[in-house]
Write a structure and sequence with these properties.
Distance between the termini: 72 Å
Strand content: under 5%
Helix content: 40-55%
Number of helices: 3
Largest sheet: none
């Protein structure tokens, strides 16, 4: 190992670090956005109903019934 060795850091990692340093609230806003779209309580009964009502797919999708 060379005397002045330092670990590699990509340009993307540096960009993200500077972005977070410029805007400290960035990560909090990202978490709020994720909670808004993805972190929701799941309705298990509705999921079960949807699973039961699903129509099975044909073996060859592009073939018309005839």
């Amino acid at each position: 190992m060379p005397l002045f060795w330092k670990p590699y850091r990509s340009d993307v990692t540096d960009f993200i670090a500077t972005l977070k340093a410029r805007d400290p609230q960035l990560e909090a806003r990202q978490r709020q956005g994720r909670a808004l779209l993805w972190d929701r309580a799941q309705d298990r009964e509705a999921q079960a109903e949807q699973r039961e009502e699903r129509v099975p797919q044909q073996p060859y999708v592009y073939q018309t019934r005839g």
